[in-house]
User: Fold this.
Amino acid sequence: MPLRLILGPPNSGRAGEVRRRLVGRASDEPVLVVPTGDDAAWFERELCADGEPCLGISIRTFGWLFEDVAAAVGLAIGAQLTGPQRLALVRAAIATTELRRLRRSSQRPGFAPALDALIEELQAALVTPRELAERAGDVEGGAHEAELAELFRAYSELRERSGRTDRGALATTAIAALRADPEAWGARPVFLYGFDDLTLAQRELVGGLARAADVTVAVNYADRRSLAARAGMVSELRDQLGAEIEVELGPDAAYTQHASLRHLDASLFEADPGTVPVDGGVVLLECAGERGEAEAISREVARLLDDGTDPGDVAIVVRHPSSAGTVLANVLAGCGVPVALEARAPVDRTAVGRALVSLCRAAGGHGTAEDLLAHLRADPAFSESIADGVEERIRRGKAVSADDVFAGWESPPRHLARLRSAPSARARLLALAWIARDVAEGAHRGGAPLATSGGQEGVGLLHPLELRAAVAAVELLEELATLGDLPGCPEPTLDDAVEALEGASVPTWRGPTDGRVRILSPYRLRAGRARYLFCAALGDGEFPAAAPPDPLLGDDRRRELRIPALARREQADEERYLFHACISRPTERLYLSWRSCDDEGLALARSPFIDEVLDLLGDEPSRAEDALKRTQGLEQVVPAPADAPSERQLARAVAARGPRVDAGAILDAAGVAGDVRERVLASVAQIPDPGALPGPLRVEKVLESLRERRVLSANQLEGWLSCPYRWFVEHELAPVRLEPESDPLWLGGVVHEALERLYRDPPGADAIPRPGDLRRWQARFGELLDELIADARLGPERVAVVARMREQVGRFLADEAESETELRPRRDLLERGFGMEGDDDPGGLDLGEFVLRGVIDRIDVAPDGRGAVVRDYKTGANVTEAGKFEEKGSLQIQLYMLVARRLLELDVLGGLYQPLGATDPKRRRPRGLVLKGEERVGGLSLVRSDPCEQDDFEEHLERAEQVATAAGRELRAGEIGRRPLGGSCPKYCTFQPICRLERAIGLPSEDSNGANGA
Ligand code: SF4
Assistant:
């Protein structure tokens, strides 16, 4: 029987011709072969579109057809290897084959899947291991291909030993059997529709069937450059199988009323295409950023739906829907548009997949606390508050390994316990499969099924994607559990399970797409049609796309091997063909969209296909572009109210006009009325005025509580001066950080305590280090430091911080040993508290409406027992000099000097900050305030500008008292506000999300002091 061809370009009615013939031969039980299961479902709907059932017609993919042929010729088909089983045999083949050229690459994780894919390709090209080995021997440097052939042979042997078959082996056997007995198929006519290409195995099968039955192949082909990618298939069918062209269909110009669309379909990529006037058939969308493009498209779609278009009449094509379709789908769904994203999602990006992968890692010998936390977070049955507690312990360095997480709990988390208690590798994988089900269903066990709503495909973990991921994971894990039965295959480990889960994917959409906007690839679009079609993400490098590289057998080597069936299609032809498929599908309008920049504003080049289109429109491409283009820049973060695609977007658009606008007038101008108008007005009214500053506090109970505060600390007052709002957050809201205390704060506390103990019990004869005993002082300080941090679990950063501080204090002690001062720290004045209500407490410093309390690091006293210098350690490198006390809001040392004078009845000679973190000898000197000409401070290594006359000295103290009193009064009156000292926020303030000040998150201060915060 002759093999017949139906040729025709897009819009020539090939599908209708095939349908007509199929129905005409229904009594002969014809078989229609289409590329995928989805194509089968689509064609089935087409056949039943008239409402009449079509009995007698079978729709098959090639996989099914090979099985049908095998059954027809009487082959006993053994069980086929599943994907994981096949991969396991490939891995076993790699493990048992001696490799030299491929030895290193074979150890990489992607090698086995790549080899699996190559073997499948070789089988489809009917290339045997022997043929590949022979060809490898003919080419220069063929050792690489020879080893591939050896791996292919090893796999084939293992498959034979397993007693199973695979697609390739089944195809080879079925073709051979059909050749021997073509009549076995009978007279059932066979039709092929929708194929871009046929593998050699498929062609051989078609040829075999054509010997006994009518076989008709419909090909999307005409002698055009845009369809050149399919010329090879037509010539192969004609030259190798003797196919005859039975019908050559012409384009149906009536498919659209727009001349521009017809012209693009007929002439795109042709040498001398000519032009047609711009009409309403084409729109260009120039957008900024990925989300900006999705929002621009969603606005156009919303407008179409608002005008009465059925969502099913709109399609959005992207070259790679799995990567580029998600944002589009989310934005459309967010606008209430029913959408179907026809792509695949990696299992490990779903909550179920993440839960399984992280659990496998946590259960392994090196499982970290983060691994276990990731699992607990993904398990809906696990308490969120307990997971928060786990996260806090991890952030604070208290849980490092997975076992640390549940130390002190009655038992490990149940999934981990189940996995660890499984008695064998197989049982572990089955336990993991059970956990996959449990995670997916856990949130809703015992509850009613959740309804879908708002055009979304579902909610929560019962989202269909999660359920599909769980089903896929269960099947995969149960298959993995059986791999130990295959020859040469060890029992799979949890690492194997992770690798399998990370390599698996699930469809993001299942089921009919009627009534939904489809987001799909050009390959899936070819069989369909849309009234309105968006071709999105038209960036250079995105569409046209580069050919995917083959890691094992590149294009050059394929050519050198001279196996025609392994030759790849020309990528440029393929991309032109796919783009043409896009522009030939819409009947009403084609939208072409691209991003002129990314989300950061970085310029991006658009696809050269846009210019190919413009060359065909109007009298001049740039004028055509001006006429057709709609632009959405990065500055358009919200749509114009009249263009808002959803109620939420409308509220945002109105709110963006500012706090004092007449929202009602804006809505009236946009033609918004009724309930929507009222709801938008209500939601806009709730938005706080972004210009309104917070404070002062107004709640009487809070004010009363502040008024009752009669005791404040210097630290609080300085905090108030640095920014009243910052003080409010830090002291009153007191947010608990998940992270450990910042290094300066933590270290400050440790160093202060070590220094207090050192001077309280000095390791030498004197109260300060002297040249002869310096090493003892330094060593003792080191011991004290070690004692204080003995129980802390220090990460590498803190180990470095401690080592640095050991050095810095060592230098401070060395400086002090060189000093000729006669001042000495008095033991009872080390870490001297006041206002703390202890036995020997002198009471607080009376500042009128309140008293000051605190702890003074150290007071050094002159030999007369009266003269005294107040000392304050700072772990940072910078301290405030007296001339900048007011500018920097520094009060502490002056107030402590007043305490020493009034409460401890000392003759105060000065107050000095000691910068322990400074390294430069000059900057290591203490800074502050001392009495000029006072002999008792002689021998101190002072900066020349710090000593001041008695009057200035007293004025500093008086001024500090006034400022402290005023600050305390404001604080107790609740007069908070965003008033950073000097008008600019300190870099280390991280409270912007709370005070709602728009600026970057700051860093922890290096100069902050961890001690004495009362
Ligand atoms: S960010 Fe500025 S205004 Fe806000 S609390 Fe911090 S210092 Fe104050």
Notes: Residues 451-461, 999-1014 have pLDDT under 50 and may be disordered. The radius of gyration is 39 Å. The longest strand covers residues 586-597. Residues 433 and 474 are 5 Å apart (CA to CA).
